[in-house]
Write a structure and sequence with these properties.
Elements (H helix, E strand, L loop, with lengths): L1 E2 L5 E2 L2 E9 L10 H13 L10 E10 L8
Antiparallel strand pairs: 1-2, 3-4
Amino acid sequence: MISNSINTLFMIYKVTIEETVSQAFDIEAESIEDAYNTAIANYKKGILVVEAGECTYRQIQVQDINNGECTE
């Protein structure tokens, strides 16, 4: 517990924030399978990199570190 200047006790909570971002890339390929395989290979090589941008999903969870209670 932490107390502030007026002696109010505060608990410490662990807050976890998860975000998903997305970005579209144009790939020239002979087929949809070829485009998929090229995308995977270029992603693994660091050629296709998703930049910080439009957040498509966000979840925030708070956990009481003393008893493990969590928000959904």
